Amino acid sequence: MTEATGEKGAQYQQVVSKGPLPYQYIKVKLEFEDGQPRDVGESQFKALISSMVREVYGEVGCSLTSDVLKYSPKDCSAILRVTHSNAVKVWSSLTLCSSFEGEPCAFRVLQTSPHLMALAVNSRDLDF
């Protein structure tokens, strides 16, 4: 970490991080085969994620924590926070999801970043 003086004597700090940040943020959406929205509650959404991780990684997978930071029930999308070391395991578990309560569905990973603020804007949605 270094300190420098900018214009008019203003102080700023330059921070250089070494290694990965502790968390990875993943924006996901649960899509059904017919494209119609479903009434999926936040607890059901979280339970589905946990069951998929358990199905792929067994009882060891139960120790992989994922937090639902924000959930939108109208389009079944959420922002998940997982530890950096477990992000690939959670992501791979989500891609293997094929049904919810007997209905065909799939998780789509929309965005991922080690910085939560990066999920605020999607460059693909911008009009130029």
What does this structure look like?
It is a single chain. This protein is an alpha+beta fold and 128 residues long. The protein has a domain at 39-119: Ribonuclease P, Pop5 subunit (Alpha-Beta Plaits). It has 2 helices and 7 strands, in the order E-E-E-H-E-E-H-E-E. It has helices at residues 42-61, 87-95; strands at 2-5, 11-14, 23-32, 66-72, 77-83, 99-100, 103-113. The strands form 2 sheets. A 5-stranded antiparallel sheet has the order 4-5-3-7-6. Strands 1-2 form a two-stranded antiparallel sheet. A hairpin with a 2-residue loop joins strand 6 (99-100) and strand 7. Helix 1 packs across helix 2 (87-95). The longest helix is centred in the middle third of the chain and has 20 residues, at 42-61. The chain starts with a strand and ends in a 15-residue tail after the last strand. The model has no long low-confidence stretch (mean pLDDT 85).
